Amino acid sequence: MSEFDYKKYLKEGKLIKENSFNDFEKNQPARLNKFIEELNELADEYHAELYLNDEFYEILGMMVKTVSDMGLNENKDPQSLLSFIKANQEEVAEKTMNIEYFPFEDIEVDGLGDVSIILKNEDGGMSFKYPEDVDSEFVGENNEQPQPITINGVDLMYIEYNI
């Protein structure tokens, strides 16, 4: 039986290649996105009982941005955008001049697949998309063109409408 030559083994890089991705690293994007989605769901369900404040949403927004900056939020689908808008709703309210409606009560993916915010008392609403997802159908009230907006470093497009 020959002796195991660990120096040769290390030099060939087999150890690094064999163990370069553990299960967490392989599933990191999905796991982090799932965690953020679940945290958003819990916040929606229990925000009144937990007395969640702006600091919570600020932290959640930082988490979403970090995942996005790491390139882990590959899913530019309505659910990931929904999580992002929920986490950054104060900035959305400020930049769209709707601060009097903050915190938003009704943020959801609408029947068209857009992330929409219905303002309190149904005074109107807003819909959001990633710029690359905007098509000719995505227009506001009276066929107004979508407006660019940057939320927490992420470029989006939005429209406003009356109900």
Describe the overall structure:
By secondary structure, the chain is of the alpha+beta class. The chain has one domain (6-161). The chain is built from six helices and five strands. A five-stranded antiparallel sheet has the order 1-2-3-5-4. Helix 3 packs antiparallel against helix 4 and helix 4 packs across helix 5. The radius of gyration is 21 Å and the shape is globular. The relative contact order is 0.11. The model is unreliable at 15-22 (pLDDT under 50).
Detail the topology: elements first, then pairings:
Elements (H helix, E strand, L loop, with lengths): L5 H6 L2 H5 L4 H28 L3 H16 L8 H10 L1 H7 L10 E4 L5 E4 L6 E5 L17 E5 L2 E8 L2
Antiparallel strand pairs: 1-2, 2-3, 3-5, 4-5
Helix pairs in contact: 3-4, 3-5, 4-5
Summarize the structure.
This protein has 163 residues and is of the alpha+beta class. The protein is built from six helices and five strands.
Name the features:
163 residues, alpha+beta, 5-stranded antiparallel beta sheet, 6 helices, 44% helix
The end-to-end span amounts to 81 Å
Strand order of the largest sheet: 1-2-3-5-4
Mean pLDDT: 76
* Oligomeric state: single chain
Backbone shape: globular
